[in-house]
Design goal:
Number of strands: 0
CATH architecture: Up-down Bundle
Order of helices and strands: HHHHHHHHHHHHHHHHHHHHH
CATH topology: Growth Hormone, Chain: A
CATH superfamily: MFS general substrate transporter like domains
Number of domains: 1
Strand content: under 5%
Shape: globular
Structural class: mainly alpha
Low-confidence stretches: 1-12
CATH class: Mainly Alpha
Distance between the termini: 38 Å
Largest sheet: none
């Protein structure tokens, strides 16, 4: 027992510093306790994704109930499907840009805890709306909470796990998140075409997702605050206590002493963050790359995912069959993160992103030409898998590219630009499909993904196996 506890005692006898806190976190093994924290974070991600991906599944039901219409005479008509999609992305934009920085000020845990509670409540209220204005308003508020939650979670996860498991941790997070895609699809398939207890099926789908989020809120209340964030704010005693508990749990899980602490680089500690730092010499290139990436990946990915059932309907497939096809395609979503578990920490992050983007581009162009049901499903599954591989890569990547003092603000800003792209995607697809057909709409998706691949390949830095401090300080 004395051999196991000795390393922790040696660490505790030295005055804590930001460098030591970071080094102690980075030498933690991939223990059962650490993976448990990752699982609890990912469990919340399941219901976040359920909420975000419900858009394409519930739209046919909302249209059938008469709350929204598929196409409108006016470009920005409030009762159209495009407005509902736009409300989602505008809300995510406000949440990530306007409130992402509060996680740098008030802490990762506090922010993602209250954001989850807020968006779940708004989503539950949305399920009872009977008019387009009320539906879009509560959808907007729900999306704001979702935007805040995603940013705080990504910052927290990147700061918690060591470099050797960072890619796998994000892959597990995205795996459980994307399990929500088939879950949402199956739930929609069972409820949307029907009216259980005389209530529109789409309302059941939204309400079930909100209730699940509230359950996760209860389960995650005991997660600790980010030790890196505490150290960055000068709360070194609290950070030291948090890391000590993680070290003790790791030693208990592995029954082995931890290796010596070796700080790799000096950590620049500034208790104030500045938006202008994103555009300074050190981070400007990264910021430009991520802005280009996010705008076009959102236009491409959500341009397909939100309109997939509609693409099929426009080509003569019935509503029920289009939902069934979409459910089957959605079932492939978790395969991307599963595959990423094997290469997320072995292949450079930027090339994972480039591969995912090109896979989406190729599959998107093929999807427009296919008419055989099995081939449509197979091609859609490849496209869906490409989006999830891309998602694993960029969620890990963007959280690595900025220091702790501005991480949430920076990730919130660049991520917010994807919400602008996503809000435009609905109008882009509607315009292309209305004037040139489904093939042209899917060709625009492919074009967006080619731009994504070029931006990351040409401008993205290398991060694999490096500590956050090595990448940024």
């Amino acid at each position: 027992m004395s051999a196991v506890s000795a390393p922790a005692c040696v660490v505790e006898s030295s005055p804590p510093t930001s460098e030591m806190i970071a080094a102690r976190l980075d030498r933690l093994p991939a223990s059962k306790s650490l993976w448990r924290f990752v699982f609890l974070l990912a469990l919340g991600g399941f219901f976040e994704t359920f909420e975000m991906f419900s858009t394409s599944f519930v739209i046919p039901g909302i249209v059938r109930s008469g709350v929204l219409v598929t196409t409108t005479e006016g470009f920005f008509a409030l009762n159209g499907v495009a407005t509902y999609i736009a409300a989602t992305f505008i809300g995510l934009f406000i949440g990530t840009l306007g409130f992402g920085m509060i996680a740098d000020r008030f802490g990762r845990r506090a922010v993602f805890t209250y954001a989850l509670l807020g968006y779940a409540t708004c989503s539950l209220i949305m399920a009872f709306q009977t008019e387009a204005l009320g539906l879009n308003f509560w959808r907007l508020l729900t999306a704001i909470g979702l935007g805040v939650e995603v940013i705080a979670i990504d910052a927290y996860l990147s700061e918690l796990v060591p470099p050797g498991m960072r890619g796998r941790a994000f892959a597990l997070n995205r795996f459980l998140s994307y399990m929500a895609v088939p879950a949402c699809g199956i739930t929609s398939f069972l409820f949307v075409p029907h009216e259980p207890l005389g209530i529109d099926g789409w309302r059941w789908v939204i309400a079930l997702g909100a209730i699940g989020s509230l359950v996760v809120w209860v389960l995650r209340r005991k997660l600790p605050e980010s030790a890196r964030w505490l150290a960055d704010k000068g709360r070194l005693a609290e950070a030291d206590a948090q890391v000590s508990r993680l070290e003790q749990q790791a030693e208990q899980d592995t029954a082995q002493p931890l290796p010596p602490v070796v700080p790799s680089v000096s950590v620049l500690v500034e208790h104030k963050s500045s938006f202008s730092e994103l555009w300074g010499a050190r981070y400007r290139k990264r910021t430009v790359m991520l802005v280009i990436f996010h705008v076009f990946q959102a236009m491409g990915i959500y341009g397909f995912l939100n309109w997939a059932p509609t693409f099929l309907i426009e080509q003569g497939v019935t509503v029920s069959k289009s939902l069934a096809y979409t459910v089957v395609m959605g079932c492939s979503a978790p395969l991307g993160p599963i595959l990423a578990m094997f290469f997320a920490d072995r292949i450079e992050r930027k090339w994972q992103i480039v591969f995912g983007a090109l896979l989406i581009a190729v599959a998107g162009m093929a999807f427009a030409e296919l008419r055989v049901p099995l081939l449509i499903i197979g091609c859609g599954a490849l496209l869906t898998m490409g989006t999830t591989i891309l998602s694993v890569g960029y969620h890990t990547y963007q959280s690595e590219l900025y220091p702790t003092r501005i991480r949430a603000m920076a990730v919130g800003f660049v991520y917010s630009t994807s919400r602008l792209g996503g809000s435009v995607s609905g109008f882009m697809i509607a315009f292309m499909m209305g004037h040139f057909g489904v093939q042209a709409a899917l060709l625009s998706v492919a074009g967006c993904m080619v731009i994504v691949a070029l931006a990351v390949a040409l401008l993205g830095p290398l991060t694999r196996g490096r500590t956050l401090e090595e990448i940024n300080d």
